[in-house]
Structures are given as C-alpha cells and as structure tokens.
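Notebook entry, structure prediction.
Reason for the run: the old model in the group folder had no record of what sequence produced it. Starting over properly, with the input documented here first.
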Amino acid sequence: MSAARPLTALRTLAVIAALPVLLTACGYGSKATDDGKQTAVAAGAKKLSADEVKIGYFPNLTHATALVGVQEGLFQKELGGTKIKASTFNAGPSEIEALNAGSIDIGWIGPSPSINGYTKSGGKNLRIIGGSASGGVKLVVNPTKIKSLDDLKGKKIATPQLGNTQDVAFLNWIADKGWKVDPQSGKGDVSVIRTDNKITPDAYKSGSIDGAWVPEPTASKLVADGAKVLLDESTLWPDKKFVITNIIVSQKFLKEHPDVVEAVLRGSVKTNAWINANPDKAKASANAALEKLAGKALPDKVIDPAWKSITFLDDPLASTLNTEAEHAVNAGLLEKPDLKGIYDLTLLNKVLKAAGKDEVDDAGLGAQ
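New structure, fully documented this time:
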C-alpha cells in the first residue's frame, strides 16, 4: 500500500457494507459498563446548565485522555457542580448506540463508527467536536506461523468488532493486497475473526487466532505473550498521523448544554497538555484507571511500548477523515457520502484560542 493511499476506503465501506449487520449483530448491542464513577464535586461548586454529563470511552490506552481526565479530576474541575457519570465500552458501534439512545452525552470513539453513526442518522445525531489521539494500532502475529505480510493469506486474524475502526482498517489493507474477504462474514482469503479485546489474548494463546489488528494495550499484551509486531498502522499514513480517537457529542446535548460541552473540551485540552508535559505520571494515571476498570494494572512490559506508540493531541485531524471518504469513492466502494456538518469545532477553537494554542481545521466538513 502506498503512503498516499492510507487505510481508508473500507473504513467508510463499513457505512454501506457493515451497517445493516451492525444493527442486528450481537456485538452492536453489547452492554456498556457503568463504572459508577462520579467524581466528587467540591462543596459550593457552581453548577452549569446540566446537573450531570454522561461520558463514554473505552478501557484502552488510545482513550487515555478520558481515562486520565476522569482519574485526575481534570474534567470535574472544569465542570464545577455538574457531575460526571462515566461508562466504558468495548467497541465503537455499541457506544454510538448509547449516544443515540441518550445513555451518554459525550464520547471518545474512533473514526469509523463516527462516520457510520453520522451517515446512518442522515447527519442528525452526532457531531465530532475534537480530537484526542493518533496512532496506537498494530498488526501483531504469531511469528512461528507468519513471518511476512504475504503469510497472512489463509490465516485467522482478529479485530475488535465488526465495523469498528480497526476492523475496517484491516479490511481495507486486505483489499489493497488484492485479496478478497466478505466484510460481513469475515470469510475469504484471510479469516477476519471479530473478537472482544478482553478475550483476544486468550484466543491468541489457545491458537484460535494467528494474530490481530488491534489498538493498545491489546497489541502489547499479545507481544508479551510471544506475538510479534508485523505492522504499525501509522507507517501507512502520510506524516504517520491518523485520527484514532475523536470526541463526539449528541447534537441535542450540544444545542441544549453548550457550556457543559465547552467545559469538557477545556478539560480535554488541559488533560492532553498534562499528559504531554508529564508522560510518566500520565502513564501511571492511565494504568491506575485501567486497574480500577479491569481489576489489575498493566505490567511494564505491556504499558511501556504501548504508551510510546500513541500521540495525544487536540486536533481531530479532519483531513484524514475527508481522505477516507474520498478514497472510498475513488475505489468504487460507495457513492460519495455527505459528511458536511460532521464536525463542529467552534467550542474547541474557542478553548484553544483562550489557552494560547493554534486553532484546528475541519477540512471543509464543518457544520454551518
């Protein structure tokens, strides 16, 4: 695959090929974990326009902005007397379902489910309001079975969930190789096995899969179990940057509570700044949050390489989303989708300007 054609086309192919299945597949309706996490509100703190804001994110290091922001109280400080209620999800489609149902108001999520959710609703249910992370996705394999990329043919490779960002990225990579895989069943020249990240390491150790295209820390967990990194997704993108985590909001909540959304974005910007200024402390904080969610912390041999592969940033890298849609059209995988309005970066740019930071661009896909 050329650097000029990143892992894009089938991310958006999920809009046409995977969405009908996503609505009925058991993974789409998987339950969120209600963390019961409500950060203590300081006595006398002024409440914003909502009593509570419900946020969602994954127990992944690629969502460390949310993990650390909640853990360190950085979001709550900006929200004052408005409480945070946090829930975690295992993959994007189930988080989109929760956003649509009103179970969460704001979420950290990958680009593919963001596109799916926006397109499926005819542009009515969500907006991307900020970025959070780039990178942190790897193809890791059993080195005794797979020694080169060409060896993937005929093998069983896991992705987190049908239609999620890594699933679609891998399908796109397969298509660029000239191999054929049915995007819904996962059957073809490579067997794409949709496996929850929590059980992927056990599936690898049992031999049920030969490798996985997964986010951190799952990738580094597999490496700790003997797998080898065969490909880092960032190497397939110009400048090695691609959005892996967006911040989305329901349009209803954005309209009714812009002050709350702005406060969460301030918390996100301050959290990213703290992470980048204090990488070791931030890594420890993220690990502490994961320990609370999963019952145990990640060992150094897992978290150290995983943390190094992720870049935390406020820019949603909107041009990468635009490129994904363009390449999908050029590849004949779908008619040109209408993504105009998927971004509303007004509040983020207000926050960035106030913090003395450069404003970010919506690549012409902003709401009017």
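Summary: Confidence is low (pLDDT under 50) at residues 1-31, 328-333.
The old model has been moved to the deprecated folder.
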